[in-house]
Amino acid sequence: MAVTTPTLTPPPNYKPASSEAPSLTDEQQAVVSTVAAAVDALIASTTPDADAQARLRTFASSATIRRFCVAAKFDAAAAEAKLGATFKWRIDFGADLIDPAEVEPEATCGKGFVCGFSVDADPVVALRFAVYSIEKAIAIAERNGREKICILLDNEGVGFWNCPPVSFITSFVSIAEKHYPERLAIAIVANPSFFIWGIYNIVAPFVDPVVKSKIYFVNTTKKVEEVVVAKEEPTQAAATTSAGTWGFGGMASALGGITGIASALVGGSSNNNSSNSDTETHDNTENTAGTGGWTTLTKLIPADQLPTMFGGDFDFVYDHEVYWKAITSV
Predict the structure, then answer these.
(1) C-alpha angle with apex 267: 324 to 133, nearest 5 degrees?
(2) pTM score of the predicted model
(3) pLDDT tens profile 46-73
(4) Local confidence band at 240 (pLDDT 50, 70, 90 cut-offs)
(5) Which of 24, 242, 249, 262 has its CA 20 to 30 A from that of 284?
(6) Could you give the CA distance from residue 217 to residue 299 in angstroms, rounded to a whole number?
């Protein structure tokens, strides 16, 4: 029987293998303390508004400060600079003040949703619209004693004609790197097309090795041994026709189904009325060096948490009214 209520709490039997918080040396802890002591001054220099300052203090938890220090490789000055830039971005963008009504049009078609958990109990976000969903996924993670999120990027049917603008991709990557450090548990790139590999090959040399090691590739239409060993002919993916503009609070206009693009977490504009070679799933195994490589999706997300649309056993059907009520209450 189909389920329309999203799973926002991990099953009680989900026990992460280890704590996400790394053990710090005395020297590293001293850096964290130094950055923590600078927070009030950073906030005061960001905005004079008392309400905005209060929101930034809530954001700047000890765990957040630690993550920024880890991302800055425990360089106190660099961590303070990163944190200060993020304070300014959160106020300018209003990351914690996004009106659900503003992004709801992006959710009505099920373009993106938070539902289910990975094998390490990190909430899974399958995205079409960006910042709002990430903020909600992080809130769900912290509510359940976690810090990181698992991102599932379904690229089936994504090619030259329905990919997001390069400016959007680079802007989103910049936001993720600068303002959400140490939040990624794993990123799963599903059904990468020839076109997606082209983008990946361009950005891969600039991806931090630690981040790259968290990237996994899956083909939901074939078994992993068929992708890695047999290397059969790629599966023809259905083309996706969509139209709209691109933004970060949400992406306007209707797209059918859930597709996406690696790194951008979204997909679609212009026209594409037929299947093309750039939208077919390609294995390209030789270019996965340094990543988690090809694997089976259910090794990363348990079958009972993985919607059937991705080959799992969870018969989740996106019902916007039910989902939106649940996610906006987080």
Answers:
(1) 30
(2) 0.56
(3) 999 999 999 999 999 999 999 999 989 9
(4) very low
(5) 242
(6) 12
